[in-house]
């Protein structure tokens, strides 16, 4: 999954021959999972049509403050557009458009939107090589970057004039790669390694049957995805689940039993900064699982169980630098039991669930948790989608390293 997934990107297109490449650029943004809107200068429509871009982006394309051809035309609100975006990308950025951006000459919808934007702005220059080297253009580069805008360097190659040199707009795939790399580098968990456990464990009774639980793994997978989106490198150790966490920063190790999860956790724990134990690990397993399928011959069947190793407690005993987060699913004396686990398992933070709370626990899209830290500071949260709960957990980690 790209870091652009779910992001709102406003693409500004100015009037240069490189505008024809923006159709490919829109496709790549959409493929990365972004929501794309396009604002064009009137001159740019000579090089690429609004119909093409609206079809690819699945959003209307605007180029003027209102459509003069419509009898009851509505105003295209540049302020709304500027505030909507998570990122603004101006490509191609011609010498004329960059000069207006630098001076604040607000004579078209694109510049008005740029001046209203509160988000990071990337610009990809495109012009002939003499224009690219002209002092006025170089001054625009300097001014725009001083304003906090991020320049995507032009490439060297054949230009529309027939000359060859610097000034060619970066290729669409290179623009996307540049933006992704820049975002990743600035994310708050960049450089951090996080271990996350997720899902149930299955403890074999025989080759066909097992003891398990109702965990879907969704909470752990949401945590892994949210952490990866903040730049962390994730080791996801997952029990049996149909869910998958697809992200370039996530390495998934699939396990089945509690012992397999224990071994995998200990293999990676020493090299991580954070460990989040969100898996619902079986407390007991059959002591003597059968190597053959047990036949249904008797009216009753007794299975002797033995305790599994407490993975979280074992990690707590060996932790040194790690920020260790556990989960507690309780049905009675919730706060007291959770605090006892913090001490017993040497945790830095526990995320308490109560099955007494409607909408919490297994097989739901929501969760209602209470955060308790190692100093017993208690912070109850409202019922939220599990994705938002995962975000709250990741924010706790970000605050820890702030």
From TrEMBL:
Residues in DNA/pantothenate metabolism flavoprotein C-terminal domain copies: 189-399
Name of the protein in its database record: Coenzyme A biosynthesis bifunctional protein CoaBC
Magnesium among keywords: yes
Pathway linked to the protein: Cofactor biosynthesis; coenzyme A biosynthesis; CoA from (R)-pantothenate: step 3/5; Cofactor biosynthesis; coenzyme A biosynthesis; CoA from (R)-pantothenate: step 2/5
Pfam families named in the record: DFP, Flavoprotein
Taxonomic superkingdom: Bacteria
Domain (Flavoprotein): residue spans on this chain: 7-179
């Amino acid at each position: 999954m790209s870091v652009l997934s779910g992001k709102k990107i406003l693409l500004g297109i100015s009037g240069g021959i490189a505008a024809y490449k923006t159709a490919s650029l829109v496709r790549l943004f959409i493929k990365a999972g972004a929501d794309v809107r396009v604002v064009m200068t009137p001159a740019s429509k000579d090089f690429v049509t609004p119909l093409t871009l609206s079809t690819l982006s699945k959003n209307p394309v605007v180029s003027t403050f209102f459509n003069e051809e419509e009898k009851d035309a509505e105003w295209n609100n540049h302020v709304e557009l500027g505030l909507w975006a998570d990122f603004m990308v101006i490509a191609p950025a011609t010498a004329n458009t960059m000069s207006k951006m630098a001076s604040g000459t607000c004579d078209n919808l694109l510049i008005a939107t740029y001046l209203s934007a509160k988000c990071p702005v990337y610009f990809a220059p495109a012009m002939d090589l003499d224009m690219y080297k002209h002092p006025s253009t170089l001054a625009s580069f300097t001014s725009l970057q001083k304003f906090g805008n991020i320049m995507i360097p032009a490439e060297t190659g054949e230009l529309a004039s027939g000359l060859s040199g610097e000034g060619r707009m970066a290729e669409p795939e290179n623009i996307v790669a540049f933006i992704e790399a820049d975002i990743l580098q600035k994310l708050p968990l960049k450089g951090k390694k996080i271990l996350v456990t997720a899902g149930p464990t299955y403890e074999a009774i025989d080759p066909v049957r097992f003891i398990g639980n109702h965990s879907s793994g969704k909470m752990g997978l949401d945590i892994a995805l949210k952490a990866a989106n903040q730049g962390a490198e994730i080791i996801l150790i997952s029990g049996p689940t149909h869910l998958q966490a697809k992200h370039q920063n996530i390495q998934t190790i699939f396990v089945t039993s509690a012992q397999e999860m224990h071994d995998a956790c200990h293999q990676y724990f020493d090299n991580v900064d954070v460990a989040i134990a969100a898996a619902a690990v079986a407390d007991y397993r059959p002591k003597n699982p059968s190597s053959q399928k047990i036949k249904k011959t008797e009216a009753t069947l007794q299975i002797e169980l033995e305790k599994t190793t407490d993975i979280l407690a074992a990690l707590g005993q060996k932790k040194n630098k790690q920020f260790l987060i556990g989960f507690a699913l309780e049905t009675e004396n919730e706060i007291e039991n959770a605090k006892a686990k913090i001490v017993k398992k040497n945790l830095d933070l526990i995320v308490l669930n109560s099955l007494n709370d409607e909408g919490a626990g297994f097989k739901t899209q929501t969760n209602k948790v209470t955060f308790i830290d190692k100093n017993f500071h208690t912070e109850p949260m409202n019922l939220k989608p599990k994705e938002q709960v995962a975000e709250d957990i990741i924010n706790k980690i970000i605050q820890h390293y702030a």
